[in-house]
């Protein structure tokens, strides 16, 4: 009896090796990357030759957009909460635990303290819409001295930005300040921020830049 | 998901032997991994932004800076104007200088330009710059013998020596005008890093500086309204 060999070619491709590669890539990406922070404004930082990396913790970032709106972000959620409570106390505003929790979840915040409670009560999609309205007076932390008149017509000088920075610093002693400003920001805006910091004797800070590449040199 | 493949072992017609081979199909696994990779690639940033550390003079230090300015030979003042313009003057400034618009020299940001600010500052700071370049080369040749911390300390020493003992290093005073942008300031600070300038400060414009910028450029935006009225009255 002759053997009739019928070979059936299988189209099955072994994916094990492919799977190995993808898992490796996945591990690489998970370990090396940091998530893009959701920032309320798009900031293009100027380029610089400095190669010093930004510290990862204990950082207070002051975001300044090209029109001069100021936003703050703190990397530690508990510091953030304590800072809000302290600033609120200065203005006689207390926040509910729910509002505090909403605040903790924000990446960057920039709402005048008097509008803060109302802002925190909004659902998150409306919060985003609120922040989009950059021309509004109720977006951005007011910097520079503002003169307040009380009932008797007395003038008191107040600076909300300074209060935020001062309280953030009280909550965390090791806080470093970084300024992330758009490269088209006019200098007077940056000067307001730097003057306020100077008045608080905060003379060391970091300017966030992107690395200058050979082509932009 | 696994697939059971039936392999025929030809031959003997009736007594067919079935050999079961267990193979796991990894295709869905790969699909899922690819999806995850795509997600991570899109939602994450690999690059951490760089920072430029800056030490601003405090209110008290500004007076110190004024004293430094009196050390006339070493001071260079950069004025940052509108539309990325850059002007500088060297040395001490007197009232006569403030009246003379040619005292202010226009410079370019572009390092390849012959009258760029980089060329000028490097010339001024030649000794320190060359020493630090030599140090850098040494670090490149023997990277193991010179960690970053040591390199930074040595270059700081060179800068300090040039400033305090030899008194050859220039002090650069950066004065951004209201019409300049944040980018200009960072660019100016960057030049300090490139040229290894040890002592520099960001200071406000004086009234004289604004007059000088106005006389040079005829751009009345540098002046306050009162000053414009005064200029018209003259």
Write a structural description.
The complex is a heterodimer of chains A (217) and B (234). With 217 residues, chain A is an alpha/beta fold. Chain A has one domain. Chain A has helices at residues 16-32, 77-90, 97-105, 113-121, 124-132, 160-171, 187-199, and strands spanning 34-35, 47-48, 52-53, 59-64, 70-74, 146-149, 155-158, 176-181, 204-211. In chain A, strands 2-9-8-4-5 form a 5-stranded mixed beta sheet. The longest helix of chain A has 17 residues, at 16-32. Chain A is elongated and about 110 Å long. By secondary structure, chain B is α/β, with parallel strands linked by helices. Chain B has 2 domains: 2-43, no CATH class; 59-233, no CATH class. A 5-stranded mixed beta sheet of chain B has the order 7-6-5-8-9. In chain B, strands 1-2 form a two-stranded antiparallel sheet. In chain B, helix 7 links the parallel strand 8 and strand 9 (199-202). In chain B, helix 5 runs antiparallel to helix 6 (148-165). Chain B is elongated. Mean pLDDT of chain B is 72; it is low at 6-13. The chains are: A alpha/beta (217), B alpha/beta (234). Chains A and B meet through helix 1, strand 1, strand 2, strand 3 and strand 8 of A and strand 1, helix 1, strand 3, strand 4 and helix 7 of B.
Structure in a nutshell:
Helix content of chain A is 38%, strand content 18%. Chain A has 217 residues and is α/β, with parallel strands linked by helices.
What is the topology?
The complex is a heterodimer of chains A (217) and B (234).
Chain A lengths: L15 H17 L1 E2 L11 E2 L3 E2 L5 E6 L5 E5 L2 H14 L6 H9 L7 H9 L2 H9 L13 E4 L5 E4 L1 H12 L4 E6 L5 H13 L4 E8 L6
Parallel strand pairs in A: 2-9, 4-8, 8-9
Antiparallel strand pairs in A: 4-5, 6-7
Chain B lengths: L1 E7 L9 E7 L2 H17 E2 L4 E6 L3 H12 L4 E6 L5 E5 L4 H5 L5 E3 L9 H8 L1 H16 L6 H18 L5 E6 L5 H13 L4 E4 L4 H11 L7 H9 L1
Parallel strand pairs in B: 5-8, 8-9
Antiparallel strand pairs in B: 1-2, 5-6, 6-7
Helix pairs in contact in B: 5-6
